[in-house]
Write a structure and sequence with these properties.
Layout (H helix, E strand, L loop, with lengths): L6 H4 L1 H15 L5 H15 L2 H13 L4 H5 L12 H14 L1 H4 L3 H10 L2 H23 L5 H11 L1
Helix pairs in contact: 2-9, 3-4, 3-6, 3-9, 6-8, 6-9
Length: about 160
């Protein structure tokens, strides 16, 4: 795999716009620990190695356990996640896979039960932002930091 475009240098203005909305999300009503789980889950679905690297590291720094990170792709089968986290993860999957899911009423009802209207909007914006970053990174084949190091070692 080779990087197609280094998007942050190719169009800094567009990246600044993305960073502005990312800054809003970083300070919104959704708790940081939950935000990181959402970012990881969307990135798993989208196959974004770069974002997975970043957000699993961020989650660990924020105190997330290895078990919860490892089991995140199978959260429905685990008792390690709270009802609020489960509602957020279901909503994340619904919106990330919206062409297939069409954001079903069942997922929205779980969201309503666990989140205020403001939090529902904040969570939805958060999900949209991570999906946008995933699409930039995957679309332009952003090289994962470990891949970059590994490629440098092979050349040396």
């Amino acid at each position: 795999m080779s990087e197609r475009v280094i998007f942050h240098t190719a169009n800094p203005e567009a990246v600044q716009a993305m960073l502005a909305i990312s800054n809003y999300v970083a300070n919104c009503s959704i708790e940081h620990s939950l935000a990181e789980l959402v970012k990881i889950r969307a990135s798993q679905i989208n196959g974004c190695a770069n974002c997975l690297h970043m957000h699993t590291a961020d989650a660990r720094k924020a105190g997330e356990t290895e078990a919860r990170i490892y089991l995140l792709s199978a959260w429905r089968e685990s008792l390690l996640y709270t009802p609020r986290e489960r509602a957020a993860l279901a909503w994340t999957e619904s919106l990330t896979l919206i062409a297939q899911s069409h954001a079903p009423d069942e997922d929205y009802q779980a969201l309503q039960a666990a989140f205020t209207p403001k939090e529902q909007v904040d969570l939805t914006v958060l999900i949209n932002v991570i999906n946008s970053w995933n699409r930039l990174a995957v679309g332009f084949r952003t090289v994962h930091p470990s891949d970059r190091k590994g490629a440098a070692l092979k050349v040396a």
